[in-house]
Amino acid sequence: MKYCENCHIAADSPRCPLCGGKKLREIKEDDYCFLTEMRAMEGEMLADVLRGNGIECVTMPSGSGLNTAMALPLENSRLYVPWRSLEQAKAYLREAADTETEKWRQYLLENADKLHISPKLEKKVIKKSKGACGESVTEFFQNLIVSSDRIKDGGMRRAGDDFELFCYANGDIVAIDGKTLEIVDFSLKKR
Ligand SMILES: [Zn+2]
Question: Which residues of 137-169 are buried (b: 16+ CB within 10 A; e: fewer)?
Fold first, then answer.
């Protein structure tokens, strides 16, 4: 396995898959490798959990200048772990993702009666799905929630405590306002 010092990632090819650089060297056990990027607060929490599980972890801020200029708390953290712990850390991330998915699935299904959509967006769904959505668009999205293999908190949409939940199911994606349960956006695979 090779290592790109520029991007801090492991690469099993002669070129770095991120920067395309060719100056890769053999990876060492202690080399810090990129694990994931997430909102700063969650990143710090995850880093703490990893450390608690005996995985060394460093975080680096990666906010955009625009967010800083607008004083928005949207700065992200990048997490890095030593190469020897990368697989273990990834397994932990997968486990955490599954837990989050089940938590949100339960929340959405418990509140399924509140699921709603604007008439304008509903028309778009009917058109895009070529009728695959059946008679009830909200029921179609309920089924999508049930079959989602990943549901995650997409973070703040506007100032305030709004958040959107993204459900991913076999190439279909739907974004739902986490508070009002309005279906706010969608992307469907070709039918
Ligand atoms: Zn690179």
Answer: bbebbbebbeebeebeeeeeeeeeeeebbbbbb
pLDDT of residue 73: 55
Decide: helix, strand or coil at residue 20. coil
pLDDT at site 163:
85
- Whole-number Å distance, alpha carbon 162 to ligand 1 midpoint, is 36
Q: Model's pTM, two decimal places?
A: 0.74
Q: Cα of 53 to ligand 1 centre, how many Å?
A: 28
Q: Spell out, as residue ranges, where the chain has pLDDT lower than 50.
A: none
The radius of gyration of the chain's CA atoms, rounded to the nearest angstrom, is 20
Q: How far is residue 8 CA from its own chain's centroid?
A: 21
Bridge partners, 96 (sequence order): none
Strand partners, 155: none
Tell me, in angstroms, the distance from the centre of ligand 1 to residue 21's CA: 5
Distance 15 CA to ligand 1 centre (A): 8
97's CB contacts (< 8 A; 6+ apart) are 150, 152
